[in-house]
Design the sequence.
């Protein structure tokens, strides 16, 4: 589907347009003679572009094209005073909500999702424990789940807040945790499975719309930590005790539940095993490194100096852009 | 069954004994001539009593009667130097674990459980909302659940730590919360249902044995807050959406999940409605007043003075026994 | 006196006006020909209304009518472009500060104060302890105190921030605490008296002016908790020890002093009795439920969704407007 | 009175004894023939000394001489196996509680109280403000208050926990605060008065008995911070407003109330003026330096090393005895 | 050099100007006929002054005079509509960065630095310990260090944020700490040396530019506490162990390192001696009294009332301007 | 040297002994006839063993062999009542402190140090940056440093508290951090160097004696975090700026200084770069996983159950021993 998105960043004058756009701005103005005209700003995940004015006769072409709606546009890229603008050649069509694919209008990770799925599927394949394999396959061998999972961000506006962000974050956590478990002589298979499952609740906790990510009601009232625990509990109903004992189930639920590390950060129980603890630190490593790296990349925090003027909210402290290279 | 317990506190010399007791102490001693003899201390929820010595010939009557085991005793109450002791007239029988009823050996609330059930059932009957009634009946109209619920304490060693303690605590919370909701113009039916459901997870989180209460593994790894949420989730599977909507389900789960009031006290989400908030304060009122009242009743904290010497652990601060009456 | 307030909300064109108003806005403008004119916006507790312009000849009618002053207005309600405005027919009279009754211009609780006083007086009448009765009557049988108490808010801008708010809050706290004390087998008379007295310091801690509530200097430098303790201490001077012992006095002072529950919330000592503790939780129930309910009623926190966009300052967390009814 | 105390530390064999002692230990023993005898250990602020045995015939000489009682002793210092002991020559007389002067049996500061009073009285004499002088004289020109104040410790078991400790601490605080105020261009007279008044509540908050210091009930239920504020409030009743305005009274009460610096340390309001803030830091300097110095002097924390093994409770962190001198 | 600064506050019409100024504002405007003109606002530590317009022909006089640059100005003070303005009589000269002396454009303490140096040098002269004298002289007998130290502020925007502020603050701390040490019978020489050295790291941690103070990169990445410790460590290399032992060195480093009092305020170790503790409290006294006094002097916090409307950031709580004098 | 240690665990009767031992216990006893005899308990890192009695004639063989001293023993392993004991055949020789090698008597990691050095040296060899290589070689190419480093524990009584513990911990941290940096696209070389350097201060902060590990005075007064920063600062003096710029030096010092992650855990500055942050999380992973694993291995926390009875001090929470295997 993504290929159907019009690439605003690379568009040149003369390009034909027959795509969906999000209405970012709608300005109703008047000429000196009092005649009304309309300017729209349209956008998608690749950028934003203004329209040529819609004059009196065309005003009804944009009926219903309110800010936040998705519209189907027919037209072409034109030039105006050296800048590109979108010249409409037909009335806009308002897309019904049911047909809108929010992914087209949201930021997206730059890594190919196939690469990430390959890593996950190879990791699943290497699990020696049948019980762990069965547990992880309850979700990761389910195509419907994979479709949802792949679209989900890892947070609403913080770390990995992009389509595919959850997939990327989980792969990072699993990689880091597996390595740490090997170094610390802990059960590496168990932490991989814990890492893959730890954030499954985000599939239910976050919603996507063309204008951005948001918490669902259950995401606010229950939280992704407990949602994930309940999702696992539900799917485990169909697995026989002979394959996965009560105690083993508890351990997996505990890993999801404790992954925030302590009560004040939203885990109702703290990690009680080596593997749950390592999962927590790996989660911190992925989330906080992403927060730090993206905050460092945002020029707005730096007024020309090396050290940020204030404390970017995602890291909560002043940060430093080193002026030197290391070779 | 409780009637089958031998009432140690009121027993008099000559009473026949044919009951179960917990072995509290087992002392193996020797006479001056080297002959061995044995003294046992036996007990149940009503008190403790020593046995007459078991001489050499009777030693095997007590084979296997180790500390912590439950035994069936046949004998009678005798006098020895003005004190009562238990004279055995037949070998002890070690009760298999499966037959032990821990309730016989544990502290028990002094209020009649019937009175409390009556209150709860009347409160259920007064609910105007069919949806709320259906939700609460998933548990409180289920006899198996009622049996478990009635035996459970409200904590392992803190407030209402007695058989029946959970039933008493929940009734107190529901009474206080209902009144507060009426005063504050909130939905009184909803807080009653929230109060009845808020601690259902304790049925799975706490275990009973003749020697005391303890956390189960799931009580430690998941915690009663999330266990209760999951139990409700499970039983709601069979209720049609037409009777209880997704949003209504969420609200009930949220009330269980948020009843500790804030993250650092183990609720992964804080209360987000008036009713969830009032439930939390009612829970505090019942739990903390019980902690305070029982700590005030313990002489060990008071070395003769009005103010406690130290901070009793259940309240965490110094407490005061007023020396005056208020008429 | 309240009946003398002109009811702006219900006023219709033609109504005669001869009332006091607060000057909310004062705009000095000029016509195209440079002639000056004046527009005032006037208000009271029932709403706000603009005046018809005061032209050059009438400018001195409004001399001294600065923003924040109270003025006596003679005029009538007129219509202008379909909206109501106030047409003055005589010069404004600036009311001396000493004559201003701030209550006319401040928000007011919607419950009748008589109902609340009835509850309080009945509760006083039901006290069995002469000593407690005497203590509470030091304030609640004193008409001068009652007048002040009835006008006071329970906070400057938070819970129950309205004329009559303190009376309402205290009645709520007393009702909730009395019920909780009965449930928990504590001294219900004592908590009622504690509840009635706990916030008396607010009579000295808060000031009223037509433009709003504020902290007095003693409210800032001493705080209502200690002010209340000192007020009680002062009035107790005249009560004989035979009626109220030193120890009983201490207990009442302790209940006022400890009602915030812990040091970090401004109580220099935490509650050391069951009754002081229950009073604290009842205070939380009334204050926090009011904060939550009023925050839920404010549309500004909800951008169309069920969950608030941010954390309203009075509750400090995101809150939820349930989309369903419970029958 | 202190001169009447028998100086145990310096007593030599043959000294006559006709003094009061505290019974520290009472041991009832038996000879091989079964005859009972009695050993007492007696003490006062200067040390402890054992008695010669009281044989059968003398047993009733010690009737009522229980541990913790004060007794009048007639006898002499004798030698036994090279050690001193107290040989009684007459029956002990149990001193009625009303006649006991606890100061004789409690630790006492080593500085002469006269020196401290001189400092205070000179400081009072140097005050330029009549209003401040009047306020401080309400207490420090009152002989009855001075007697109580001079006997009071500054804490029960922490800093300056000795008879005279409060006097010493307050003099230290006043000296430090006055200097700091001069350096920081603040009102030095005001901080001196604040320093002298800041701990007056301890006169009511702490009790003395021969066995040690303790909190009074009001010290526990109200705390010395608020007690001091109330004491000042009471004595100010008789001072005319013309000499000390409402606002000036408030400032002095605020200085007492805020001297712990923040809510979590028991001040219901934090310091709101430069002078109240400087008083707080001076109080910290005196209290914490005394805690640190006395903890450093206690060998029990140091197992031979320079750094304490654990964290002495009065300072809450590891401390260091420097091994070097500075010259 | 300071004498070379043009005194804007006292300048009168006709004064000749031949001085350096900081360009505070640069406004490029146009006349009705479209001709461009330029207005500059220039300033230094004594105030700010606007220029007369630079018309078309003079525009290149101000080439390169961007906001934030320092320029050499030749001209005179003229009058325009009753206000003073600066009339240029020659082109501006842009001062190369290397020649700019930021001190000319920054706030400066009002106490003469000579007075402060005299105090410090006298205090050094009075030290009885050769070892301590040697340690302090490593910095305070070094003219290059004194020049830097004298220019440094004690914070970027908080307490003593002025040229000379560090010198003033350190003198205050040393005075207060020396007095407190004498009162508390601690080593006064040691606290004086600790006070003089405690903030030496600020010389490296803060930078000055004409537009204000800022943190250097090492000030941000290392912090002044550790920078000072390292500076002392470095200079101690050349002092023989016979004069200053390892243990004595450690003590001085510890005093610098622990002067923030606890870990959460940036001291990696808390004070472990009486002297280090007293130094900490003296530092608080100077810093916080300055914060409080300057916040009280800022009208913006007080909307006409005695108590501040909000909590000024430098003190973090509401503050009070007493309305009365104390004689 | 370690091979010279007598292997107590595996010793059999008849083994010749000519080794050093630590005196663990020294008991002086008497026979019934009053003759004195002596029993010693000797030990080293492999275990403990009692001696045969030293009778009157041999008593001076053990002169000076006090508890805590190291002695040279000549003798053999004998049998007594079925247990092994050490029979001395010559007088003990007290080893002068200077000759004692504490490593012989302290716990030691079970991994071969050669393996760890190989990893570190290979990692150094793979560094692409000459600057980073030079920085790390200042310590890790210095044989004297390597000897000290290899003997140091990573804590006194917590994680990796064994000879070689620091080497093991640092290798774990470097491995985990390097992997995490690769995953998060950060500078892997930089985190490896940061990991190798982050704890160098422990070489000065911890001391070894035969009876255990302890903090040195500088370890207590300065702390290993700042000690490490100062050690690096010192050795960097000899490196030319052309190889390692000021800014690069600062970054390495910052990584050491910030590795505890936040102020309250003893880092005076928090991590301000991605690499410093990842180093911190890797440090947590190694330290906390070791604390958790070793606490789980200690039976004393588990009274037969799966969940620990209390909270082991090294982890601060209850922990779980899973009863199941994962295949």
Sequence:
């Amino acid at each position: 589907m993504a290929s159907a998105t019009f690439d605003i960043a690379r568009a040149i004058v003369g390009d034909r347009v027959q795509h969906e756009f999000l209405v970012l701005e709608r300005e109703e103005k008047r000429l000196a003679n009092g005649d009304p005209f309309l300017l729209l700003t349209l956008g998608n995940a690749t950028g934003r572009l203004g329209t040529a004015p819609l004059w009196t006769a065309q005003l009804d072409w944009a009926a219903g094209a309110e800010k936040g709606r998705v519209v189907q546009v027919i037209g072409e890229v034109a030039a105006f005073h050296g800048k590109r603008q979108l010249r409409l050649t037909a009335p806009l069509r308002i897309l019904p909500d049911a047909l809108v694919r929010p992914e087209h209008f949201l930021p997206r990770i730059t890594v190919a999702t196939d690469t990430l799925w390959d890593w996950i599927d190879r990791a699943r394949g290497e699990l020696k424990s049948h019980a762990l394999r069965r547990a992880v396959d309850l979700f990761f061998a389910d195509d419907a789940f994979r479709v949802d999972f792949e679209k989900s961000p890892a947070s609403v506006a913080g770390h990995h807040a992009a389509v595919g962000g959850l997939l990327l974050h989980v792969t990072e956590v699993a990689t880091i945790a597996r390595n740490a478990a090997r170094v610390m002589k802990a059960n590496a298979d168990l932490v991989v499975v814990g890492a893959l499952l730890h954030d499954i609740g985000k599939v239910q906790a976050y919603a996507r719309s063309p204008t951005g990510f948001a918490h669902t009601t259950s995401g606010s009232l229950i939280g992704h930590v407990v949602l994930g625990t309940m999702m696992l509990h539900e799917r485990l109903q169909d697995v026989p005790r002979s394959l996965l004992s009560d105690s083993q189930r508890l351990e997996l639920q505990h890993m999801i539940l404790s992954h925030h590390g302590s009560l004040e950060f939203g885990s109702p129980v703290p990690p009680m095993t080596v593997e749950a603890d390592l999962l927590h630190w790996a989660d911190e490593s992925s989330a906080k490194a992403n927060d730090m790296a993206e905050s460092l990349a945002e020029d707005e925090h730096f007024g020309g100096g090396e050290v940020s003027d204030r404390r970017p909210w995602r890291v909560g402290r002043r940060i430093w852009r080193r002026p030197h290279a290391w070779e």
User: Anything to note?
Assistant: The mean pLDDT of chain F is 94.
